[in-house]
Design brief:
Blueprint lengths: L4 H14 L7 E10 L6 E10 L2 E5 L8 E12 L1 E6 L9 H9 L3 H18 L1 E6 L8 H10 L7 E4 L4 E2 L20 E2 L3 H13 L4 E5 L1 E6 L5 E5 L3 H13 L3 E6 L2 H10 L3 E4 L5 H10 L2 E3 L2 H13 L4 H19 L2 E2 L16 H8 L4 H7 L2 H6 L17 E5 L14 E4 L2 E4 L2
Parallel strand pairs: 1-4, 5-6, 6-7, 8-9, 10-13, 13-14, 14-15, 15-16
Antiparallel strand pairs: 1-2, 2-3, 4-17, 11-12, 17-18, 18-19
Length: about 425
């Protein structure tokens, strides 16, 4: 080798060495119990090894001098997943609450509040959320998601919907004089072509999912069926679903009652949100198509009180209908994922309250927790990243004192949160 080549070789070796990242640090979590999200059982005295942002081993041995987080008095679980949230809403129990947010608060101010809500979600133990529209704040959810991904603010992993879709005359704000232009909580579209264009637009600006509002104006019939007025025609819904699926995106449908659910299922949406009433034949179709059900139980009770006070007592009657539907959906084998609609109720209320209602309505604690971990990750197509505690997945791990399989309300007391190997809420 010529002498002139030696300095060049040394320079290249130095550059190569500088480009090599330092070995990721390994941290060990010593858990008193572990609910891993896949076995349905508690495992006692388990050590989880976390290297960088991923789980490297479950059931590890702790070497001498290792960095250990002592959770030996805790039950460890996968980071919780809420598949129906609104970080840009602060609760809208009455129409006036909603109007104030759209008419008096700027999108910038609402986005600032959304960053606070994202941190709250993480503190509650929700390391992943699907945020189902901005309610008049445009594409602000995309920016909140980016800020979390870039490490600017703390928050959960976010799947975002952006503006959502409905038809003219069907969504607030309504009731103002025709000559007074007011904002709406979403994007209004009419006809299949407009609907397709809106799907393309939302995806181009960062929407991960598309959301539609499929019904409104509910009434309880004498035969116990919850009736409604459908919004989109079947052709419009099919155009939305076809366009979204063509672009490899999924569709969530706000569908509360008979026709909204039926049209959504027929059109091929991927999840039914709320679903207070689902006809027996539509349950069968959901099972056949693999359509998910996100029941959002607690928000129904929360909203019913406000709507009844405004002169709409049907919302109180809907609670019993919803409970019956939940039982029938479980019996039919419909896939159910955990979702709360937090933002529809105040973020100061821990959305983990939903677990208590799911168990009260017939789930075992194990089923309810799996709905918020492994099952929710399947709905979001993130099962290879989150939802269970196993090697190779993100180190999204939470812990609670006591035994949540005996008392599911303990999930309202998450006192340790790790997301991607970073501790956001230390024990």
């Amino acid at each position: 080798m010529k002498r002139a080549q030696i300095p060049l070789l040394l320079i290249l070796l130095c550059v190569f060495a500088r480009g090599q990242a330092a070995p990721a640090k390994t941290t060990y979590l010593r858990c008193g119990s572990l609910f891993d999200g896949k076995s349905g059982q508690l495992k006692k005295n388990v050590v989880i090894a976390v290297m960088g942002e991923k789980i490297s081993e479950v059931g590890a041995n702790v070497p001498a001098g290792a960095d250990v987080i002592d959770l030996s008095r805790e039950t460890c679980l996968p980071g919780l997943i809420d598949t129906h949230t609104h970080v840009l809403l602060q609760g809208d129990i009455t129409a006036d609450d909603y109007a104030v947010q759209l008419l008096r608060e700027s999108p910038e101010y609402r986005t600032i509040l959304a960053t606070v809500n994202a941190k709250r979600a993480l503190d509650y133990g929700f390391t992943t959320i699907r945020d189902l529209e901005t309610e008049g704040a445009g594409y602000a959810d995309v920016d909140v998601k980016k800020a979390i991904e870039y490490g600017v603010i703390p928050g959960p992993r976010m799947i975002v919907v952006t503006r959502a879709l409905d038809v003219t005359g069907a969504y607030p704000l309504q009731g103002y004089a025709p000559n007074v232009p007011v904002p709406h909580g979403l994007q209004l579209v009419d006809g299949p072509d407009e609907a397709r264009k809106a799907v393309r637009e939302q995806i181009s600006y960062g929407a991960d999912w598309i959301k539609v509002y499929s019904d409104r104006s509910y009434r309880l019939r004498d035969d116990g069926v919850l009736d409604d007025i459908p919004t989109f025609t079947l052709d419009e819904l099919k155009a939305i679903v076809d366009e979204a699926h063509r672009e490899r995106h999924k569709v969530a449908s706000h569908a509360v009652a008979l026709y909204g659910v039926h049209n959504s299922v027929e059109a091929g949406v991927d999840s039914i949100e709320h679903g207070d009433y689902i006809a027996p034949e539509d349950l069968k179709t959901m099972v056949a198509h693999g359509t998910w059900y996100v029941p959002t139980i607690y928000v129904g009770e929360y909203v019913a009180a406000g709507r009844a006070a405004e002169g709409a007592p049907v919302w109180l009657k809907m609670l019993k209908v919803h409970e019956d539907t939940f039982h029938r959906a479980m019996k039919a084998g419909v896939k159910i994922a955990f979702g709360t609609d937090v933002g529809g109720f105040a973020w100061t209320i821990n959305p983990a309250k939903e677990f208590e209602y799911m168990v009260k309505w017939g789930m075992t604690p194990e089923q309810a927790i799996e709905a918020a971990t492994a099952r929710a990750s399947e709905l979001l197509d993130m099962q290879d990243q989150v939802g269970t505690v196993e090697a190779g997945k993100f180190a999204d791990i939470v812990a609670v004192p006591g035994a949540p399989l005996a008392d599911v309300t303990l999930l309202e007391k998450v006192d340790f949160v790790m997301k991607g190997g970073v501790v956001y809420k230390p024990k």
